[in-house]
Amino acid sequence: MAAVPSVSLSSSRFVASWSHLFMRLIHFSTLSPRCLLFAPSFVARRSRVNIPCSGFRRSRETTHGNVIGTEFGVGDMLKQGNVLLTTYAPGDYERFRCPKCQGSIYNVQNVGVNSSPKGASAMWSCLLVQCRWTGSLAVEDECKWSNACSKQMAGGLTEESLHLIPLSKKFIMYFSNRGISEKTLNRNGVRQYRNAIAFPCRKDGKIVGCKYRTLQKFFWQARNGQRIFYGVDDIKHATEVIIVEGEIDKLSMEEAGFLNCVSVPDGAPAKVSESDLASKEQDKKFEFIWNCKEYFEKVNKIILATDSDSPGQALAEEIARRLGRERCWRVNWPCYGLKKLKDANEVLQYLGKQAICDMIQSAEPFPIRGLFRFSNFFKELDDYYYQGFGNESVMSTGWSGVDAFYRVVPGEMTLVTGVPNSGKSEWIDALICNLNHMKGWHFALCSMENKVQEHARKLLEKHLRKPFFNAPYAESIPRITKQELDDGKTWLTNNFFLIRCNDEELPSITWVLNLAKAAVMRHGIHGLVIDPYNELDHHRPSNQTETEYVSQMLSRLKRFAQHHDCHVWFVAHPRQLHLWHGEAPNLYDISGSAHFINKCDNGIVIHRNQDPAIGPLDIVQVLVRKIRNKAAGTIGDAFLSYDRVTGEYKDCN
After folding, report:
1. DSSP code of 367?
2. How many CB atoms lie within 10 A of CB 645?
3. Which residues lie below 8 Å from residue 93, measured CB to CB, with a gap of 6+?
4. What is the enclosing helix (H) or strand (E) of 192?
5. Other Cβ atoms within 10 Å of 367 Cβ, number
6. Number of helices (H) and strands (E), helices first, in the chain?
7. Confidence band (pLDDT; 50, 70, 90) for 558?
8. Contact assessment for residue 558 and residue 413, using Cβ atoms and an 8 Å cutoff
9. Does position 529 have pLDDT exceeding 90, yes or no?
10. pTM of the entire structure?
11. Beta strand 339-340 with 335-336: parallel, antiparallel or unpaired?
């Protein structure tokens, strides 16, 4: 072809030359989406089309890779239209001024090339909204190129049908710089296709697909190929398999001595899917796993060595969902100085083969929800040990006499009972005031028997150690002042959160726990008080006994306490006592079920003498009847004196 003189691309001659090419326009929908990659950049309204394909000019090659002729291609047509580009190499892009709108310097066009089995194509698009000139063209040949494609479809994929040739020195040097030897490349059949690296995918020794990449990281795959793991023949008889994210990572694993490694064909997803696992027929994104499922039937350990970035971790999660978390391990790639290494090849380049071996050997079991090792909790165990007994993890009640038998442990449940008018609620209020004063704890209060103003009065009296009213019970002690009331209201607002049902319906335990969870998340509460049990709605299915219901309810309370590290105090009244003579009840007297004492961590009976003939009325017994955690205390009796004026409890000698 004679040389074409350089002309202005915005000239009338250029526009006229395109009229011939319009006869060959094809629709965009006819192009293969797998071969066309758009990477728009909105800086200065420029856009690039990265199109790794077979090029503008197609060369036919012998089985030895020698070029024997050049057929008429899209590059020739573009040159005839005076589209003078600096390069027509596959995967490259060029820009030229739009001949329709004669746009400014920022009106940049993109020429894209698309490879199809029977020919090559080009497409263009003006980025200016006022113009939006678009078009495409294709060349169809009926020569040996088509014949080769027909043979490919009839006889399967081969290196000849794919026009693969041995790697050139340039590519061998490229792999060598990344730590991959020529021996490893040859064993894995890595080849070259024009100016791209080809990774033929083999299954039972036959090529069933091929993936290509350029040095500029443009990727595409051969059409009509099977989607399988790259290197699947290497794991045919393996009981332990390593899965990586890219072909070069698979080669890096082989350099470190691991042949039992495969690579995914399509890279990683952006994030883990939130939907349920799709069926085999619908799971198109991870079709390669289902296509190779039989290779994993006898595998008992799968090491997921995907990239360390977020998509790589998402890929590991998706693979584990399909192959079973129980047999999956995951690799945590190391750092090189301040740089977090991304994958196996980076580890090979920066740290060497031994580092890859160390990472594989130290792979950790893939986390399974609800299944742990003790090592997962060693930090908590160390904190528990170094804090010392009774320092932070076991809280003082504020009364030395009670501390000898009962201390408060976060994440436990304490059951409190006692006959009516024995002071159960008053004692719990005094306890939580002590914990607030000493440790700064916050609480959610679900107290259905108290009006809000009455409950606030009791808490303020204990906090300020003064009576709320000038009433007979005040015994001439000055009441709370206006300033103290204002300060007290601030204290109430900052430390206590009320769970109350404003309508006439009784709250259910589910309703209470949902609000308590919200209080943990929003306000960081440390304790939950439910007072009393019989004020909750206990509607249950007709086929469920009361014993079963109580067991289920207490289990939910304990799970809430443990999960949120929140102590729960649960007040339950004893059943009606016949022939009662003033003695303290026991935990088995609680109305409903023996599960109350069986399921709680701590069981306490609050009892106060109500007969002045027997003894003083201000002495309160704190009878500790169950302690599950010996670090929290032991069974025994403590005595406190009750100050009726302020509602305080004090140690009793």
Report:
1. P
2. 15
3. 48, 49, 50, 51, 110, 111, 112
4. strand 191-193
5. 14
6. 18, 27
7. very high
8. yes
9. yes
10. 0.53
11. antiparallel
Phi, then psi, of 606 in degrees rounded to 5: -100, 125
**Distance between CA atoms of residues 637 and 399, nearest Å:** 13
In the block, which residue shows the tokens 């005094």? 430
Q: What is the DSSP string of 437-500?
A: HHH---EEEEETTS-HHHHHHHHHHHHHTS-SSSSGGGTT-----HHHHHHHHHHHHHHEEE--
Give the C-alpha separation, 110 to 173, whole Å. Answer: 32
Q: With CA atoms as reference, report the closest residue to 336 among 314, 313, 352.
A: 352
How crowded is residue 16: how many other Cβ atoms within 10 Å of its Cβ?
Answer: 12
Average of per-residue pLDDT across 471-490: 91
Residue 618: the pLDDT is 85
Q: Which two tokens stand for residue 520?
A: 């943990």
Buried b (16+ CB within 10 A) or exposed e, 194-232: bbbbbbbbbbeeebbbbbbbbeeebbbbbbebbbbbbbb
Tokens, residue 479 = 């009441």
Q: Which parts of 342-475 fold into alpha helices (H)? A: 344-350, 353-361, 378-387, 400-403, 424-439, 452-464
Distance, in Å, from the CA atom of 250 to the CA atom of 200, rounded to the nearest integer, reads 13
Residues 6+ positions from 441 with CB-CB distance below 8 Å: 432, 435, 495, 525, 526, 527
The H or E element spanning position 423 is: none
Phi, psi of 437 (to 5 degrees): -70, -40
Those residues with Cβ within 8 angstroms of residue 519's Cβ, 6 or more apart along the chain or in another chain? 444, 497, 499, 525, 528
Q: Phi/psi of residue 607, each to 5°? A: -140, 135
Q: Kindly write down the DSSP assignment for every residue of 79-121, as one continuous string.
A: HHTT---S---TT-----B-TTT---TT-B---EEEEETTEEE
